[in-house]
# Entry
Amino acid sequence: MGLSGINFKQIEEKWQERWAESKIFESEPIKNKPKVFVTFPYPYMDGPLHVGHAFTSLRCEIFARYKRLKGYNVLFPWAWHWTGEPIAGAAKRIAAGDEMLIKMIHKTSKVPLDEVKKFTDPLYMAKYFTEVSRRIIKRLGYSIDWRREFHTTSYHKEYSAFIRWQYNKLRSLGFVVKGSHPVVWCPKDKSPTGDHDRLIGEGVSAEQMNLIKFKFEDSYLVAATLRPETIFGVTNIWINPDDTYVKIKLGNEKWIVNEYTLQKLENQDYNFEILEKFKGEKIIGKYAEAPLVKRKILILPAFFIDPYLGTGIVYSVPSHAPYDWMGLKFIKENKEILEKFNLNHEEIKNIEPISIINLEGYGEHPAIYVVEKMKINSIKDPKLEEASKEVYLEEFNKGIMKDNCLNFSGMKVKEAKEKIIQYLKNLGMLEQIWDLLYPVVCRCGTRCIVSIFKDQWFLKYSAQEWKEKALKALSKMKIFPEEARSWFIETIKWLDDKACARKSGLGTPLPWDENWIVETLSDSTIYMCFYIISKYVNQGFLNYENLKDDFFDYVFLGKGNEDEIERICKVNRDLLRKIREEFLYWYPVDLRVSAKELLPNHLTFYIFHHVAIFPEEFWPRMIGVNGLVNIEGQKLSKSRGIVVTIEEAVEKFGADTVRLFLALSAEDMNDCEWKWSNVEKVQSHLSSFFNFVYKIIEMENIERKTEMDNWLRSVFYRKIIKIEELLEELKIRSAANLAFYEIWSDIKWYVSRTDNPNPIFLKNIIKDWLIILSIFIPHICEELWEMMGNKNFVSTSTWPEAKIEYIDVIEEAKEEMVIKMYEDAKRLLERKKEATRIYIYLPREIKYSIIKDVDEMIKVGKKRKDIFDTLIKKYFDVIKDKSQLTKTINEILEHYFGINETLRNAINKAKEVDLKVAESLIKIFSREGYSCTLFKETDENIYDPMRKMESALPFKLGFYLA
RNA sequence: GCAGGGGUUCCCGAGCCAGGUCUAAGGGGCGGGACUCAAGAUCCCGUGGCUUAAAGGCCAGCGUGGGUUCAAAUCCCACCCCCUGCACCA
# Structure
């Protein structure tokens, strides 16, 4: 048989077909059988599934298979996410003939060009990727109950009915409210510009700016600032002479701002009328009056003002703002400009910085101090930005308002800032608008502004009682890894109201306001309970006409009168009860797993919505969080084409290889590194594994006990216990490593240590081993399982029980020592190559006694010093030489800390172990052609020229080579 | 900036919460050897420095710098660097 070339593909197809035929993963409630419900967040269908999806979902799959073998009734369903903007957006762009996008989809998503052309229809696109993805998930051999499959959006009327119920519920609970919200806005597209829609300005969000009014003639010059507390240090106003300014009428007031500001005001609900337009230079040299300080100040020219930021008008505080200081310095030294704008030289020379904030270590004028420290000489020096930041942060955090700040004097800047804003607001001299502190440019090339979105629907995550419930749920939940918990806590605390509806994209309309579509993260929160409904929908027992709100109230919450529901929803009472019972059986979700990027949003919303809608017994039980997948050292990125689809991977290496590779790749929140060369390596390991097991299966069926049987049984079942512990904590990588590599190497060691391994015994071990491995590599395991003559599926067999009597501490300790001593002796032989005889020495009896005492005392927590003193007293009669005794005890103490747990467990039997080890070593070395002799203390005629018996210790034999 | 995670020997990666078992697990790569016609697979040895004239030896090492302790990769403080998230985007 040509074993070396295993046909993975053929084996995988064979078993996938058989599983499907026998419906072993179709889960129905079974009374009194404990259940486990595992879910993976339904993937978004704007492309084929990639190895990142596989990495995460595999944790669900492995956990599901493990629990199934442990005797649980396991439900692992699957569904598809279509809700949102990207599918619709891509369809639009393809319709518009976006060649770049078409090429990208063709190339990275591996879609034939004639298919891409049909993607002008978003529905077609979603369906296409769903088909492709279903096929590939099946090829991975997941143990999924496919009868419960569904997809989202109004294209699935039953799902929409479910969302409608959920949102009516949330609204009636007061968790959906109307409000307004600032968004980054493209004035040309007339739509919000999310991070993904931007050419420039990723991560920039709307921030509040203060507008301070300076009296000027019949109107106000409206200056924008982030630091209203500096108003006490104002010396002049800056205007860009080349910019266009406008005088506008707002209510009873007249404002002057630059022209660009108008669209900000428009979008932020200000009504105004334009009275006049003029160039900045027109008002340069005139005077305005600062509020609060009531100072007359000059309007001066400045070219450093960014017309897009604020209002195009800035008030100058040279003592605390490096830009202002450099601007002032520049103008004082620049006669040309003074003349051009007809400014009085003397007057300008007299403008001096006014210090209003005390900042330790920065001198009288922090701005000047920092400018000098950073050696900034020009108004155009880019370091000015950094200088401004430093002064701002330091003053904000450590500054104290000086005596010249009215009743704000003596306050910390942090505190004064808020109070001054309030004070000026009350005086009517300050307003706040939203602005972007850094430029944002839409993909269409337009500079973005901030717009206030009115009449937006929000989920009220700010509600205190909601947060508290979420925190309570979290505290009862198991989180893997535990480090993720604090992140959840922070997120729950930090979360504010969140807009939950959009105007565009695919999805389900808000039931009471059909212009809005429930946004994607907001409709994916409690849908796991829909897996119970969707089975009946798919089987034709239910359709959307049955799925009125009353139906869901009854099935999910046990509310309502059966007669009435039967009548209103036209659902037969028995069916109704059956569905309700099925819900009660499967819910809550036991385990949900996602990558860490979904933690601060989806997973947290998942908790929020469950606690809002369901009673406590249906709150989620466990959440697993894992890292991301990098491709050959680069971040996975669909848009940059750095992506490996599951299809590619499975096509090249087969499902078991991909599964094992991913299972072994990274644990906890660490990222997985996808490397083709390593995947290949795993495949070759799988081939050898197959051959290795095959050879054992081929062995003759006879029982032939060996002295290593107990050892293998002991380490094997001990490892199974460890694997269980790891799987319970979702430590897939460690579990896979133990189960595959470490157990394998134990079995290899067993085979090499026995001249004739025991076939029956070995086959029993292999049988249990296959069961364990089947959670990682089910296809190969089924194949080998069948070769062993088993008639059932390994996937539905029973997890091996590690019986306590299988564990043999002494055997384990012995074998571990054999390995170690063998290595030691080998090292010596290296140095003395001519040796032909090996003398082995057991330690003196007294040392066994001492180490036993040490062990006992350590275990009851005695201090090292006490132990030492006790031992000196106890053994002084035996070893009269005190220095000799001290030396011995010290030596044993050091040695004790040097041995590992296995050996410590066997300390009571140390002598027995040592003897066995010595015998094993003699056997091994005799086989290698050395002549060996063993000596113990009680022997006569001990040949020990190097006094090796003296230096031998329990678990450390002495050697002499000659 | 804020929040969370992390920086370990050539690489990946465990250990850190509960300080002594760390001369740092386990892989991988690389070098050498065995087997083989050969390749692959498999097995063995080596993979910080020094010393092996000394028989299982000594020293250094866990982002940087301090501190606590008889003892620190592990605890405390400060700093540097990397990753993720920060909202209307899935």
Summary: The domain at 207-435 of chain A is CATH 3.90.740.10 (Isoleucyl-tRNA Synthetase; domain 2).
